[in-house]
Amino acid sequence: MKVSFAGGVDHVGSLGMIAESGDTRLLFDYGLTPAKPPRYPMKVPHVDSLFITHSHLDHVGMSPWLSGEYGSTIWGTEVTLEVSVVLLQDSLKIARIENFPIPFDISDVRRFTEESTILRYGERPFVGPFTIRTMDAGHIPGSTMYRIDDGGNDVVFTGDINTVDTRLLKGASPPKCHTLVMESTYAGRSHPPRKEVEKSFLAKVEEVLDRGGKVIIPAFAVGRTQEIVQVLNRIDEDKWLDGMGRRVAQIYLRHGEFIDSPGALKKALDGFSFVRTPYQREKAADAPIVVTTSGMLDGGPVLEYIRRHKDDRKTAILLTGYQVEDTNGRMLMETGSLDLQGEIEPVKCEVCHFDFSAHPDHKGLVSFAERAQPDEVILVHGDNREKLAEDIRSFAKVHTPCLQDTFEY
Ligand SMILES: [Zn+2]
Ligand SMILES: [Zn+2]
To answer: N or C: which end of the chain has fewer CB within 10 A?
Structure first.
């Protein structure tokens, strides 16, 4: 098979990998790069099928274009497909509000749904000469790694992975393979242990509440919100959940087989009030704790909460995820200012970042690759791949491709 890329090799965004054999061309992920406005990957030639690893926009954000253009079959787990549609509809809404260009419309999203085929973990669909095998990637509910085999050497495409257990999921096990195409989001960086992150996060929440401040917690709608809600279960205060994370939580509860403990998520959600109306948003704005989207502060209800409290030094904004370059969240971390409806304004609240990552750190990535016992490793989806390549070179041949590179297996 021939392997090449449509985007996302050297940064966290716009990921797409093409596998070709005979007349069959498959695509694995087709995402956008989150920024204002979002950036999209190159348009690919006709593909028969798209296999989605998980429902984050950097892996799925361009896929409706493919549906509209080629009517390609879209494969993914049930929860991945369902959550993806929610995010894609939201992308259209944001593009309309912000006047961003977007390469697809609502009829393409409809086509995406019509052409969707559900995969279960362990299933082995055939497409042309390819056999594809699905495995749990441990990153967010429904996330999948794909083993791709056309009778030659097999290739595993990880999408995003996580190797440590979180409140939502168990970490992934590395699959043995000839070639491992692995994400490198946290190459060169390390995470503190999860338990310590949770502990310091809860300590900060309590400190802010004790001094009479409000706790504003921006969280990604997909995965992070549901985890944070569970971490906050211990805090007995008036807690509110606003934005898309609530809808995604309901999808997770409907597909309880994709999370570790649906009972724990349900119980944690029962401790929150939900914002559904402007009146409820008023109440949430005055409440001690609000968890809301967007996680990188590029839109969503979070900006309204920050706008109201931005001059209050007792209030804290607790960032719970990676802040990609060129996002509002990164600007807040680096400059203390935020783009609030087109105006750059200073924010006087305390700003803290907690490393609730859903990815392995540098050591975790090296160990994952080593345990897969590959002959070759192709590093993608990261901006610090050289450092990682150095540490993997001792046990496998490593590639850090650019977009023009192709590989034969
Ligand atoms: Zn992801
Ligand atoms: Zn990703």
So the answer is: C
